């Protein structure tokens, strides 16, 4: 029984649980590492900085985000973006979100070209997804040159955001059009879900090499094709420079950024979220009682999607009508 009152970092035994707790509190006040336990799940944490990051990531406050299409609420920003990215939204899809983002960045692009100077809080080269492969899955020579040029330009001009006045000197970039997409992407104009139906199994079969998974429902199949398993998209965090394969993943990263990434605590975070979500989501100046960022659906998120319902290949409403069995 004594072993359960054992302090592992100090290799000390205590006669009671209360004595062990008192020891941990004393060590915590003195700043000794490895004496912090999460009061929600009991996980042992290195220090108060890791404790805060753990609480944000694993026990963050419910954001209660309602999609303009009426679905929700979504507890996390990443969950809300996944709702759109995976084709579950009745108003928006990933291709339309790309188009909205591209329209928002045109003014910045024009200003950059006129002044030939970097623009403050210009994150477009980070939030517009890079497509590393062409529709056949090959990395083209021109894409190699472009990627190398962008990497060198960003390394030489972007030194993090420790100083709030610093600005990335991003290259001019335009998001992919519908016709640049993989022919197996549900957002591609030529996509026809009937081509993937196998009557012998009564399932839609994934065409990707090495996969071959089957799905009985159209939406589940299209969500799989849009998912990170086969996506050639890549979103890069402007602070820590790590890349993520999906919009859901990058949104979850910046929402719960850990001790290695301080983007969420920077003065530019609101601008970044606005550009990443094409104005759908807006961080508030007020915070939850645990210090985490509050979000709301922004004005563009309430107005723009209502002008875009249906008529776009890959759109949930369009697909339901076109692919109804």
Notes on the protein architecture:
- The protein is α+β, with helices and mostly antiparallel strands.
- The chain has 2 domains: 57 residues, Double Stranded RNA Binding Domain; 246 residues, no CATH class.
- It contains 11 helices and 12 strands.
- A 3-stranded antiparallel beta sheet has the order 5-9-10. A 3-stranded antiparallel beta sheet has the order 6-7-8. It has a two-stranded antiparallel sheet with strand order 1-2.
- α3 packs antiparallel against α8.
- The C terminus is likely disordered.
- One of its GO terms (molecular function) is zinc ion binding.
- Keywords: Metal-binding, Zinc, Zinc-finger.
- It comes from Stachybotrys chartarum (strain CBS 109288 / IBT 7711).
- InterPro entries: Znf_C2H2_type.
Short description:
This protein has 325 residues and is an alpha+beta fold. It contains eleven helices and twelve strands.
